[in-house]
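Why do we bother with holo predictions? Because pocket geometry can differ from the apo form. Keep that in mind while you read this record for magnesium ion.
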Amino acid sequence: MIDVRDAMVVYPGAERPALDGVSLTLSPGESVAMLGANGSGKSTLARLCNALLLPSAGTVSVDGMDTRDAEALWDVRSRVGFVQQNPENQIVGTVAEEDVAFGPENLGVPAGELRRRVDDALEAVGLAGMQRREPHLLSDGQKQRLAIAGALAMRPAYLVLDEPTAMLDGTGRAEVAAVLKTLRDEGVGILHITHQLAEAADADRLVVLSEGRIVYEGTPFGLMGEPEYAGRYGVDLPHMAVLTAELRAKGIDVPAPMLDAESVVEALWR
Ligand SMILES: Nc1ncnc2c1ncn2[C@@H]1O[C@H](COP(=O)(O)OP(=O)(O)O)[C@@H](O)[C@H]1O
Ligand SMILES: [Mg+2]
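The structure, written out:
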């Protein structure tokens, strides 16, 4: 389990803490989506999870290892995969397989095992057969899936993704979403930071950050039924959730929230 407890982060020279007493857990096989306005502390929290950053107060532990323990650093980093917003910044290899091999190779994984891990990771993200493909020839969605494969080749128990779809088009977003769903089902714990509540709809749990504090923790649907509340914290609701909320406000009895046009039509037609 990733266990963030009462974490406080104060950046040097900052007027207020970037994180102010945040507690959050992530278990293997669980998916947690995190939303919040720009500057609310999402990336800061993400960086705490794999010891890229240490809390100023409070604790962060990964499977019982305190991230402040320098001796546990490699273990922590290999258990918590990290994927950033811009896939370009994460590509290190000249061909796909080299890129994916980079992490485990540095861990000293022997050649046979390395081959297996690289092939498995590429397959898991739907890039099987692309071993020799040059990353710059991939689409943005494929590049981001390559970055996810690089993290997976470390065989992490958890994957933290900081707005991984922000630079992708609809197709790329859908591709990444499908990969995350499969990984969750295979037992990886997923912390998915996103701007889109629609992308969070499948998460087991949703957390909203505002000014360094958790202001909502619950089911994605719970938040979708509260458009005003969501808006206050900079969360964009899916169009259909806004529509159903507005219908309800006008006294039209549709169950909220509904995410697809079909079920709205169905409800209105009854
Ligand atoms: N390296 C840094 N040094 C100083 N302040 C930072 C640094 N990184 C982030 N901050 C500040 O911390 C707050 C939270 O930032 P961040 O975690 O990046 O939020 P988010 O990812 O939700 O946009 C913001 O006020 C931001 O300006
Ligand atoms: Mg951020």
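The domain at 2-237 is CATH 3.40.50.300 (Rossmann fold).
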